[in-house]
Each structure stands twice: as C-alpha cells, then as structure tokens.
C-alpha cells in the first residue's frame, strides 16, 4: 500500500529552539495532509489540515504562529514547532490523503516523538 | 461534536483467545466508522471500515459491525495471534464531504504465546 514517511522519528531539543518535522508521501501525490498530536494514553488530536499551495487550516486552540505548516509540494509537508517548550513534548503524526482514492483513503506516517528539555 | 470512546488497555490475551475491543461513538447523522491498527514503530494502517448501519467490516480475521441502535462498532477476532499485538484505534468520519477523522484513545493489545 501507499507509504507516508516522517523525519526525524524522534528529536530532543532545548527549550527555546525550533524543530522541523517533515512528512512525505512516497508513492502518491497528496493534495491534502493532516498533522495530529498525541499525548500518552490520549486520542490523536487533529492540529491542522494542510493543502498544497495554500495556507493550512488550524483547529481551534492550535496556535498557528507556534506550529508553522508548509505544504510546498504535492509530496512534502513540514511542521515547525517554533520556540519549543517542555509542554510541546508529544508524539506528532502526519497523514496524507490520496486524491485518486475514495475519501477514506488516508495514510499515516510512523510519527515523530519530540522531547523538549 | 463527534467523539469516540473505546475501552482502555492494555488488553492481555493468550494466543488463540477471543478478542473484543469495545467502541462507542457520538455523532450527528450517519458517520463512517473505522478501525486502525498501529504496529510498533509503524504508522496507523486502516484495518477495516463500515459506512452504513448494519454493515460488517472484516479483514485479517477481524470483524466489526456498525450498530446504529447502540452507536457501537466493537472489534472482534475469534483467535488472536502474537503478531496481532499492536495498538487499535476506533475512528469515525462525518458524512459531509471531506470531514476529518475523529479518533478514540487507542487500545493496546498484548498477545502472549
């Protein structure tokens, strides 16, 4: 099946630094990508929907200036956590929708674990 | 709004035991229902789905039936294997165009030989 990759798989950074996470669709072009955040023993919470060539749509309560999303090509979306703080430590998961499939054809990356010290 | 509630884990079973992971939902209209599985170190994969009431989704020996009267979509398997050890997520998607997925918290299944 289709594959979505994320890089890095885990990252440790100091408080105040910025971290960029990449999400790639490897064998299809994704016009829409999604970014989720997951805390331990919690649901995946949708942070934002990213459409290629346009601004991301953020969910209520997600700071767009804190979590910068860029979807510059049909196979790449990036999430940058700016001025990271310990409370940003979490598991970030991206997902890409294959427009050639039915709407429910949504593929997920393996996730990126972020630890902010 | 939409929400999904699934049983907390971990669920610990011996190989060949019967599995049930409960999932109930709250949604307006007629959502589509999904079970995703996440194996260690991998992304979520669609396991099965059902798009209307009384539909039964099935895959790899797993089954779930869309029960609108009880707003449930319980996951079952008659005989689990060690390789089924993973985290299972119940999810729904509203029926309006490109609605987004709403997930439950996930249930970890551990199967011992």
Describe the structure.
The complex is a heterodimer of chains A (117) and B (113). Chain A is mostly beta strands and 117 residues long. Chain A has no helices and eleven strands. In chain A, the strands form two sheets. In chain A, strands 2, 4, 5, 6, 9, 10 and 11 form a seven-stranded mixed sheet that branches. Chain A has a four-stranded antiparallel sheet with strand order 1-3-8-7, with no helix packed on it. By secondary structure, chain B is mainly β. Chain B has no helices and twelve strands. The chains are: A mainly beta (117), B mainly beta (113). Chains A and B meet through β5, β9 and β10 of A and β5, β6 and β11 of B.
Short description, anyone?
Chain A is mainly beta. Chain A is built from no helices and 11 strands. In chain A, strands 2, 4, 5, 6, 9, 10 and 11 form a 7-stranded mixed beta sheet that branches. Chain A has a 4-stranded antiparallel beta sheet with strand order 1-3-8-7, with no helix packed on it.
Indicate the overall shape of chain A. Answer: globular
The total of helices of chain A stands at 0
Gyration radius of chain B (Cα, Å) is: 14 Å
Number of helices of chain B: 0
What's the gyration radius of chain A in Å? 13 Å
Oligomer: heterodimer
Approximately how much beta-strand content do the residues of chain B carry? over 45%
* Average pLDDT rating of chain A: 90
Q: Major β-sheet of chain A, in short?
A: 7 strands, mixed
Mean pLDDT of chain B: 92
**Which two chains have the most extensive interface, and how many residues on each?**
A-B, 22 and 24 residues
The count of β-strands of chain A is 11
Largest sheet of chain B: 6 strands, mixed
Number of strands of chain B: 12
**Which blocks of ≥5 consecutive residues of chain A have pLDDT under 50?**
none
Shape of chain B from CA axes? Answer: globular
